[in-house]
């Protein structure tokens, strides 16, 4: 497994955006995963979106070829270190983004995201930069 897919990319894939569909299919052979955090964020959108049944079927299809990585104590400790450092430097971002980053770091994965502004603040996090 090489890549952790951020929530924004998954949501765009669910919307059928060609860029994300092509990107994820191109990288599928290298191994893709999402964090349990992304799983929850996506389901929030499904349950309160316009087409819960259709979107749930789509995410079930997506999850057939993408792993869901759990949180554990080691990831939570890494989260705490990242969050504390960002707080001390006045660069704090949302906890869900920090948890996703901690997951990528713990599994030594490259994060695929369009949210470079937040994730670039996290030291040693490898970022895949999809073309906009």
Brief summary of the model shown:
The protein is α/β, with parallel strands linked by helices and 132 residues long. The protein has 7 helices and 5 strands.
Explain the layout of strands and helices.
Elements: E1 3-5, H1 7-14, H2 18-27, E2 32-35, H3 36-47, H4 52-62, E3 67-69, H5 73-88, H6 95-106, E4 110-112, H7 116-119, E5 127-128
Parallel strand pairs: 1-2, 1-4, 2-3, 4-5
Helix pairs in contact: 1-2, 3-4, 5-6
Overall pLDDT confidence: 95
Helicity, as a percent range: 55-70%
Structural class: alpha/beta
Q: What is the level-2 CATH architecture name? A: 3-Layer(aba) Sandwich
> What portion of residues belong to β-strands?
5-15%
Q: What is the C-alpha radius of gyration, as a whole number of Å?
A: 15 Å
List SSEs in N-to-C order: EHHEHHEHHEHE
- Largest sheet, strands/sense/barrel: 5 strands, parallel
What CATH calls the topology is: Rossmann fold
Span from first to last CA?
24 Å
Q: How many helices does DSSP assign?
A: 7
Molecular shape: globular
Low-pLDDT regions: none
User: What is the strand tally?
Assistant: 5
- Which CATH first-tier class would you pick? Alpha Beta
The CATH superfamily turns out to be 5'-nuclease
Strand order of the largest sheet: 3-2-1-4-5
How many structural units, i.e. domains? 1
């Amino acid at each position: 497994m090489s890549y952790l897919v951020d929530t924004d990319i998954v949501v765009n894939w669910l919307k059928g955006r060609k860029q994300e569909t092509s990107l994820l299919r191109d990288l599928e052979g290298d191994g893709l995963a999402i964090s349990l955090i992304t799983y929850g964020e996506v389901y929030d959108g499904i349950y309160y979106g316009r087409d819960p049944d259709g979107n749930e079927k789509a995410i079930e299809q997506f999850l057939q070829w993408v792993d869901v990585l759990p949180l554990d104590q080691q990831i939570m400790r890494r989260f705490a270190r990242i969050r504390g450092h960002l707080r001390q430097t006045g660069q704090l971002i949302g906890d869900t983004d920090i948890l996703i980053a901690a997951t990528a770091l713990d599994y030594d994965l490259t994060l695929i995201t369009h949210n470079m502004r937040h994730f670039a603040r996290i030291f040693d996090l490898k970022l895949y930069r999809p073309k906009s």
